[in-house]
TrEMBL record:
SUPFAM superfamilies: Alanine racemase C-terminal domain-like (SSF50621), PLP-binding barrel (SSF51419)
Protein name: Diaminopimelate decarboxylase
EC code: 4.1.1.20
Modified residues (N6-(pyridoxal phosphate)lysine): 94
Residues that bind pyridoxal 5'-phosphate: 291, 333-336, 438
GO molecular function annotations of the record: diaminopimelate decarboxylase activity; pyridoxal phosphate binding
GO biological process: lysine biosynthetic process via diaminopimelate
Gene name as annotated: lysA
Binding site for substrate: 336, 377, 381, 409, 438
Gene3D superfamilies linked: Alanine racemase, Lyase, Ornithine Decarboxylase, Chain A, domain 1
Entry-linked NCBIfam families: lysA (TIGR01048)
Record lineage: Bacteria, Bacillati, Actinomycetota, Actinomycetes, Micrococcales
Length: 481
């Protein structure tokens, strides 16, 4: 879930030019420092961005995002073509979704994975055809199921036995073609950070376990498989209002060790073979979920799309041969890897306060004009980020700093530990890298702060994708105002 501790975050400390790692990861490819020391994103000076759009602001590098979308699609298409299998890439909208972003990823050949009626509505408004949209969720409302059926979504990923009946009943009540569904299964593989663990039984809310009550998912015969996953697959097959499209597995997020994907895929392919032996139904598609990890800190290495695609393709080919079935069509659902590195958050520095630590050390607390309401990940997961002063280049000696927000909570931390120039001061522009995923999408109005805008930059021009909230927006929801 979170990244490794940020020892590398000061990797450029003491370099001749001061505290900067720009250009390079974890910044988007359009980020560079001009000769005057100020940073530009896709050719737009951050000082101009701040003047025009205010701070805090989420800044999205359109070309970088598009390139990542295209790269994932090409890498997986090529690697799976080698083994004779097709693959679809669904952009996981939960990472960040707006009408423009849905359009961009669709133009780059991706489909869109949604996890709520809201995400579905945005994808549809962008013009993404229903057939190229998936709907997830462990507790879909009747309204969400109806909206998905209205839109003719390409797949509803069902998450429980109750939901299988609810979707089938909704189709029965309205008539029409059977709804395409995938059953979300849990393989026992949980990945994230640098390790994965495999356990037979799971204590979490998603999906249906493929652990049978006897034996293991690897050894159990078709007739003996009484796992919740098999029970759900049989329940779908039994309902004529549903068309069993496939099996879905998502193992985690911010995964940097790819071996978990292969373990999960093998378990899913074995389940698919057992279902075929039992019912004659060989499902046409297997979704391997998202979770591809990115670099948050200088020196961190993101999962490489080509490498992971080749590894996963090779392993599913082996697994399908082992279980003796043809390969299905595959799909994947990257979110963070497409939008995360394309985004940064631009803040203005306010109060700067040295705080003496135990061993005579001092930490500089640098307050910015946002905080846990625009990026909850440090507080929620202990996530590490990298920040730099971007409005100018300083040659001042770097000091140990902590970037904090303006909320009334001591856990309101934006960057736990980073070296900033010792002369950082009120009015400086500070950027936090790789905030494109799960930043705006998890933002809140805590302390009734207004949520920042999302500004796209491309070829020297900026454009607002989602405008800044105003106090009037907040008051408009208050029926006594
Ligand atoms: N597919 C499914 C079914 C998922 O549940 C998720 C993420 C994804 C795809 C996309 O995963 P990605 O490629 O973005 O890692 N709020 C957390 C991440 C939660 C992810 C939930 N599911 C964070 O900020 O790290």
């Amino acid at each position: 879930m979170t990244t490794a501790p940020g020892s590398a975050s000061g990797s450029a400390v003491g370099s001749a030019v001061g505290v900067t790692t720009i250009p390079g990861e974890p910044w988007s490819t359009g980020v560079e420092r001009g000769a005057d020391g100020a940073v530009r994103v896709a050719g737009v000076d951050v000082r101009a961005l701040a003047a025009e759009h205010g701070t805090p602001a989420y800044v999205l590098d359109e070309q970088d995002l598009r390139t990542r979308a295209r790269t994932y699609r090409r890498a997986f298409t090529e690697a799976f073509a080698e083994i004779g299998a097709g693959v679809d890439v669904y952009y996981a909208g939960k990472a960040f979704l707006s009408v423009a972003v849905a359009r961009w990823v669709h133009e780059e050949g991706l489909r869109v994975d949604t996890a709520s009626g809201g995400e579905l509505a945005v994808a549809l408004r962008a013009g993404v055809p229903g057939a190229e949209i998936g709907l997830h969720g462990n507790n879909k409302s009747d309204g969400e199921i109806a909206a998905a059926l209205d839109a003719g979504v390409g797949r509803i990923i069902v998450d429980s036995l109750v939901e299988i009946e609810r979707v089938a009943d909704a189709v029965a009540a309205r008539g029409g073609a059977p709804a395409p569904v995938m059953v979300r299964v849990t393989t026992g593989v949980h990945a994230g950070g640098h390790e994965y663990i495999s356990t037979a039984h799971e204590d979490q809310k998603f999906g249906l376990s493929l652990a049978p009550s006897r034996g293991t998912a690897d050894t159990v015969a078709a007739a003996d498989d009484d796992s919740p996953a098999m029970t759900a697959l049989l329940a779908v097959v039994a309902r004529p209002e549903l068309r069993l499209l496939g099996i879905h597995s998502h193992i985690g997020s911010q995964i940097l060790d790819p071996s978990g994907f292969a373990v999960a895929a093998r378990a899913v392919l074995a389940l698919r073979a057992r279902l075929a032996a039992r019912t004659g139904v060989l499902v046409e598609e297997v979704d391997l979920g998202g979770g591809y990890g990115i670099a948050y800190l200088p020196g961190e290495v993101a999962l490489d799309a080509d490498r992971i695609a080749k590894e996963v393709a090779a392993s599913v080919e082996r697994s399908a041969a082992e279980v003796g079935t043809d390969l299905p069509r595959f799909s994947i659902e990257p979110g963070r890897a497409i939008v995360g590195p394309a985004g940064l958050t631009l803040y203005s520095v306010g109060t700067v306060k040295p705080v003496r630590l135990d061993e005579g050390r001092t930490r500089l607390y640098v307050s910015v004009d946002g905080g846990m309401s625009d990026n909850i990940r440090p507080a929620l997961y202990g996530a590490q980020y990298h920040a730099e002063v971007v409005g100018r280049l300083s040659t001042a000696e770097p000091v140990l700093a902590r970037v904090v927000g303006k909320h009334c909570e001591s856990g309101d931390i934006v960057v736990h530990e980073v070296h900033l120039p010792g002369d950082v001061r009120a009015g400086d522009l500070l950027a936090v890298a790789a905030t494109g995923a799960y930043g705006r999408s998890m933002a809140s109005n805590y302390n009734l702060l207004t949520r920042p805008p999302v500004v796209a930059v491309r070829e020297g021009a900026s454009r607002v994708l989602v405008r800044r909230e105003t106090v009037d927006d907040l008051l408009a929801l208050d029926t006594d105002a």
